[in-house]
TrEMBL record:
GO biological process, one term: proteolysis
Described function: Broad specificity carboxypetidase that releases amino acids sequentially from the C-terminus, including neutral, aromatic, polar and basic residues.
Active-site residues, as the UniProt record annotates them: 255
Signal peptide: none
Family according to the record: Belongs to the peptidase M32 family.
Species for this entry: Ruegeria meonggei
Keywords from the UniProt entry: Carboxypeptidase, Hydrolase, Metal-binding, Metalloprotease, Protease, Zinc
Cofactor note text: Binds 1 zinc ion per subunit.
Name of the protein in question: Metal-dependent carboxypeptidase
């Protein structure tokens, strides 16, 4: 076997073990007994130690030096393996193991603290997580910016400064649009109770409508909806609220966007670095375009109105036009995952600035709640009412995902570019969506983006699919046109 063949065989085994670790995480958030948390922390630490040893194995460096693939796929594989290897060898094995142990335990502590509205119970373990992640960031940055090193895990070849520049372009127009819309009358609200079993049945139908393959996937419940896995085992979760079925339905569509990306990658890349989404920003572009530009479009909401009427009967909305307005209602709220398109990115900018400050040391963990509450009131005009609606609402920091949050807004930016190209490429899309047929849109995304997995760098992936250099203008134009028409601005 050649050095390249040896390297890829080794890499596939490492990727398989990584999938097992991911399955342990899925289990922890769905069906694991609460009392198993301490043992699970040890299990996660043990498998992370094995993974770290493999990812930093000196043979990887030798194979990288000797391998000489002639095709673009082989060169891309080496690019991603080399990037991972060079990052891994900078982080001591004991530190990687400690992070895995603490974040696994912190996840359970966060869930309990959130349930009991008890910030004080969470802060000590969050302090441990932040200290360990700052230590990891310093090892990775080697004198550079710690937060940039964190971002590299989720959006390669992007810096915090570049992200801040994009956000600075977006913020004034988003704030202005929000103010204009909130000055108008609110659309009608749903009335009645929406039982959980019916929500989950319709949720599964929506998953299949958007192309989710249930022979290699499944839908479960979790506190915080997520997608897990790649290749032939890609799972999603959703959640229910008997007063708000949109929470369930649009969480499902959102996670299907993530899952479909993983399911549609070229099977030749299975269990290799190219066999997964290239970045979280690109990943989020898929979930957001599924959820918003497709799922909240006038055409698709007309079909969904019929489905909900059949399932629940009268729920207080007169017709499909009123339902479209309700689905896209802009309203005050605390929860990022429930935020409308106009305000969602403002929630992300808040988190981006706070976590940058935590990583730089400008913000102490003990001051996080006050900083969150002050910033929220400044951005949204009203105060946080309880911790689960504030700094305890998201799981990300408890599991050490610093640098992850800005990719949600980058995903919206990318989705704006993709939507512009999609609408031009599939002129009959509206008519298809009105019949509950998403195949024109999802097929275009599969063929122009999803199938390539990690073959191209993130921004190159978006540019190749959309034909434009990624930037916020298409998203801002889409939002201003859509909500300008809805609210007669």
């Amino acid at each position: 076997m050649s050095a390249y063949d040896d390297l890829m065989a080794f890499q596939r085994e490492t990727s398989a073990l990584g999938q097992i670790a991911g399955r342990l995480g899925w289990d922890q958030e769905t069906v694991m007994p609460r009392g198993a948390t301490p043992q699970r922390a040890e299990e996660m630490a043990a498998i992370e130690a094995v993974l770290h040893a493999r990812r930093s194995d000196p043979r990887v460096a030798e194979w990288l030096e000797q391998a000489d693939p002639q095709d673009d796929v082989g060169k891309a594989q080496l690019r991603e393996i080399r990037r991972s290897y060079e990052r891994t060898i900078k982080v001591p094995a004991d530190l990687a193991k400690a992070i895995a142990r603490v974040t696994s335990a912190a996840q359970g502590t966060w869930a309990q603290a959130r349930a009991h509205e008890d910030v004080a119970a969470f802060l000590p373990v969050l302090q441990e997580v932040v200290a360990l992640k700052r230590e990891e960031g310093a090892a990775l940055a080697q004198g550079g910016d710690i937060y940039d090193a964190m971002v590299e895990d989720y959006e390669p070849y992007t810096t915090g400064t570049q992200i801040a520049r994009i956000f600075d372009q977006m913020r004034p127009r988003l704030v202005a649009l929000r103010a204009a819309v909130l000055d108008k009358a609110r659309p009608a609200a749903l009335t009645g109770t929406f039982d959980e079993p019916t929500q989950l049945r319709l949720s599964q139908k929506l998953a299949e409508t958007f192309g989710y393959d249930l022979t290699t996937g499944r839908v479960d419940k979790a506190v915080h909806p997520f997608s897990s896995g790649s290749g032939l085992d890609v799972r999603i979760t959703t959640r229910t609220n008997e007063a708000d079925p949109f929470n369930c339905f649009y969480s499902t569509i959102h996670e299907v966007g993530h899952a479909a990306y993983e399911q549609n990658i070229d099977p030749a890349y299975l269990l290799t670095p190219l066999g997964q989404g290239v970045s979280m920003g690109v990943h989020e572009s898929q979930s957001r375009i599924y959820e918003n530009q497709l799922g909240r479009s006038r055409a698709f909401t007309g079909w969904l109105f019929e489905q909900m009427t059949d399932a629940f009967g009268d729920f207080g909305i007169a017709d499909a036009d009123a339902f479209y307005a309700t689905v896209n209602g802009v309203h005050n709220g605390y929860i990022r995952t429930e935020a409308d398109e106009v305000q969602y990115n403002l929630h992300i900018m808040l988190r981006f600035d706070l976590e940058r400050a935590l990583m730089s040391g400008d913000l102490q963990v003990s001051d996080l709640e006050a900083a969150w509450n002050d910033r929220f009131k400044a951005d949204f005009g009203y105060g946080v009412d309880r911790p689960s609606n504030g700094c305890l609402q998201d799981v990300h920091w408890s599991v050490g995902l610093f640098g992850y949050f800005p990719t949600y807004a980058l995903g919206n930016v990318y989705a704006g570019c993709l939507n512009q190209a999609l609408r031009a490429a599939v002129p009959g899309l509206g008519g298809q969506l009105a019949q509950g047929d998403t195949s024109g849109a999802t097929g275009w995304l599969r063929d122009n983006l999803q199938c390539y997995g990690g073959l191209y760098a993130p921004r190159d992936t978006i540019q190749r699919a959309s034909g434009v250099e990624p930037g916020p203008e298409p998203l801002l134009e889409y939002l201003e046109q859509k909500f300008g028409a809805l609210y007669e601005l």
